[in-house]
């Protein structure tokens, strides 16, 4: 029997939203809560933002505010009695998801796969695959 929360990392895409339904089912099955995690990429290179009239810190703050707004909207759409926590972190998606996954109170990860195949699969880091290979708990990858 699982006692840890279900972690659902999201980028707010349709694919990630589809995985949320599985996370809710798993949480109901094991009678645990859901932790919703969104990672905001940290702007790292000043030269990429010179055309913008804002600093990388302001851009990061705007990205976090947008994520918080999407998170709030998502919570408003959920109709469940489950305990739901939300977390917004800054940094590399894989590292931050693994840190959260291996924090000790996560029993399972439900994560979406964007279904890249062929050359695109080899050129892009597959976050879901990496999490499945490195997580200390079971991982359900939803297509």
Automatic annotation (TrEMBL):
Matches recorded under InterPro entries: Rossmann-like_a/b/a_fold (IPR014729), Universal_stress_UspA (IPR006015), UspA (IPR006016)
Pfam families listed in its UniProt record: Usp
Domain UspA: 5-143
Domain of life the protein comes from: Bacteria
Record family assignment: Belongs to the universal stress protein A family.
Name this protein carries in UniProt: Universal stress protein
């Amino acid at each position: 029997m699982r006692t840890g929360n279900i972690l659902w990392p999201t980028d707010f895409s349709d694919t990630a939203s589809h995985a949320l339904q599985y996370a809710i089912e798993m949480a109901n099955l094991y009678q645990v809560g859901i932790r919703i995690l969104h990672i905001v990429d940290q702007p790292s290179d000043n030269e990429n933002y010179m055309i913008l009239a804002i600093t990388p810190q302001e851009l990061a703050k705007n990205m976090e505010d947008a994520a918080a707004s999407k998170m709030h909207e998502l919570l408003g759409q959920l109709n469940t009695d489950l305990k739901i926590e939300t977390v917004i972190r800054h940094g590399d998606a894989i590292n931050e998801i693994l840190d959260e996954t291996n924090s000790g109170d996560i029993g399972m990860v439900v994560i979406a796969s964007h279904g890249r195949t062929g050359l695109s699969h080899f050129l892009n880091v597959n976050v879901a695959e990496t999490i499945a290979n490195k997580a200390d708990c079971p991982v359900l990858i939803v297509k």
